[in-house]
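User: Batch of two.

Assistant: Item 1 of 2:
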Amino acid sequence: MLRDLNTLWLTCVMGFVVVGCSTAKNYNETPVVNPNYDRYYGQPQSNPSNHGSNSDTFVSSIANDDWDTPQRSSSLELNPNAPDSYTVKKGDTLWDIAGKFLKHPWRWPEIWGNNREIKNPHLIYPGDVIRLENGMLSYNGRTLNSGNTMAADASTLKLKPRIRIERTQQSLIGEPINTLAAFTFWPKLLSADQINKAPYIVASQDNTLLIAPQQKIYVRNLRGAQVGQQWGVYHPSKKLNDPSSKRILGVEANLAGIIEINTPGELTTATVIESQREIQNGDRVFPLEDHTIQLHTAMTEPTHKVRADIISMLDANYLGGNRMVAVINKGAGQGIHEGYVLGVYAPGSVVLDPYQSRKGQYGTEQKQAVRLPPEKVANLVIFKTDRQVSYGLIMDASREVKNGYKIGNP
């Protein structure tokens, strides 16, 4: 009996020591030092004004080309492997084409030359021949016409690349090239009330669980529909939460397919004419949206400071990569617009400082933990904005992109 009591006492003491040591270790763990790394998330680039400056007024008087895109203060960087010419092909994107010539593809309009028949640098077509001219003289960011070089200060003259486009009638047969041409899934962000009140698919003619194209379906509460109209079928997927405020921003609904109305009524009859994913009973029906404007939106760099978080990946749970879609917790209400190019930043890892340390609770020396600066890992081209969230296409990813990564200026 005494032996058992001694064993029990020893076990309790050892248990106390083990727990105590474990608790002390956690308690004395040095908090991670998180320096202010805001500047690492990019800053907006200033655009010099064309007004109120003597030098700008002087330049305007000696240089009068058709170049009216705002000039950037930083110099352009050409791709070191830039070709002398390139013929646009079907399937190209503007981002890829611009990347053949520039280190930063979104600065494409800045090398747009005097293309009198092609005014919009964001609308080019398969068959267009793009030629790089790396010998245009510029002065303070303005291209000089011949005969004006003597008027400018020679110390500020420099060679600036320009793009020329050769267009034939054959070029206009296809669709214009843009970054988002291949992207056809346009999600909606809806409230629970909007989803609950929306028309929905009751069943298919054959009462199958998964509904395929050319199948006939029956839709309830579809008011105002007309024969021949096309509507979108959306599948509610997941709630989007703001990591800062912890608020639910809405429910994401993904486009599952397109239906065409056959017979309107209490139970509207329609035919599935296209499907991007499985269509199921209970999926909601909404009017289709015309996204032509977004597809042809110019890529631009925001001139104001942008800070946001990636809160979701479209069609993925956690990881994303090139040509995948990320959702951020800032939208039109916070000044985000379609066409914005933003930077995606991975957080730096936590390391132990080899020299800095502190004394723990029991006088033990502990190394100081420090978080390293964030690193840019991709660009994000915004193609759709709601009031509180935006959707963007991941481009030029050097590694995987994850939920929780930060968004800043590129």
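Item 2 of 2:
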Amino acid sequence: MTFAVGRTFLFEAHMTSIILLSVFGILNLFLGFLRSNKVLLPGAMLLLLAVFGANYADWNAEHAPYFNNMLVVDNYTVAFTGIVLLTTIVLLPFSRSYVVAGEQNLAEYYALLLFSLVGAIMMVGYDHLLMLFVGIEILSVCMYVLAGSRKRDSRSNEAALKYFLMGAFATGILLFGIALLYGATGTFALSQLATAIATPANASLQPMLYIGILMMIIGIGFKVSAAPFHFWTPDVYEGTPTFFTAFMSTVVKTAGFGAFLKLLAVALPAAQGFWMPTIQAMCALTLLLGNVGAAAQTSTKRMLAYSSVSHAGYLLIGLVASKGNLTGDAANGIFFYSLAYSIATIAAFGVVKLVVDHRQRDDYAGLNGLGRTNPLLAFVMTVAMLSLAGIPLTGGFFGKFFLLAAAGREFIGLVVFAVIMSMVGLYYYLRPLIAMYLRPAEPDATPVPVDGIQKVTLAFLALLTIVLGIAPGFLSGIL
């Protein structure tokens, strides 16, 4: 769909998602001047639904590169953009407590979420390393601010400071890696990078190239919480307000792996002999530290933080299995796993937020007796935990199955190790279920208040998780 005025103005509908998010983010700031903030939540959801529809309209459309070939909106971009948009839409109802409390900065929070989505889309649609850097920075700066949004909470301030300082170092390493890649190849464009690496003009530049690739892996590994660059995750997730923690653990991770896969598959397939052992080592270490770390936690939020690390390990299996292919079984497995993981994680964090807001505790004991006081919350949490654990009839099961099946053809040792780590995961994913159904609630415990839109959202998340576990075929080959 193209609108033109003479020969001077041309607007391509394929850029609608980025344009709408940018404009809506600015408009949302002006809505903050209203006396009541009750219009902000439904307004933000309607705007995101409009963007989701505009993004869907780009599927199989005739695409062209933008910003001097730095950004491309193709089916790959549309697919991963759909995940981050859907994730944000189903997350927004859990910001209802901010509306009820009359949070003065709610308009700014929503604007930052919209702006961060612009960065996420750039990360999955980039065709130029500088566009990747710009997307990461837009997303990261927004998250630094949101992590410290609870100004009078020392834990939130600590989380923001840690995230900012470590994120700044990781960004510097990433940028240095980009500079070294440019120095070795003379280009930032992904396709030209692939050609230059496959036909090196000067063998003396190979060390510079490999160091650049390694530094880029480190920089992106930090963003997706891959070990050994995950050390910030538990403290930042615990100190950040739960609503923004849920966004951080889903949207940021999905965008990060979308960018990671594109980098390896489009720009670096000829360097596979170098990065493949590195990614395999990161994968094994991430699975080990993520699962063992989660098993040792007593806080539900910290358990979910280490769980996020472990799931980065499973997604790294997809990167290994892809072997530089952007459309194969492994790439489709990464897409499906990202969707299933995001849906289950939003459901889990949504329940945790509601419980923490009411009971003022985020340990497992805070979930005691939830099966009797709030059967819906307990059921949704059960479905989410089973999906994250990879139990059959949930989306998480087929997410793991697709990735492990793709890797099992050649990387059987990694698959066996992942299965063993999944068994460790069963231990800590079952602990919330034991608390909810087998532990008595406090004598004065009252039902956790859940409003209508939150009930509908939780039911939708649980239903979608089950549908993905029963009929995964309609999304399994989308790429």
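The chain has a mean pLDDT of 89.
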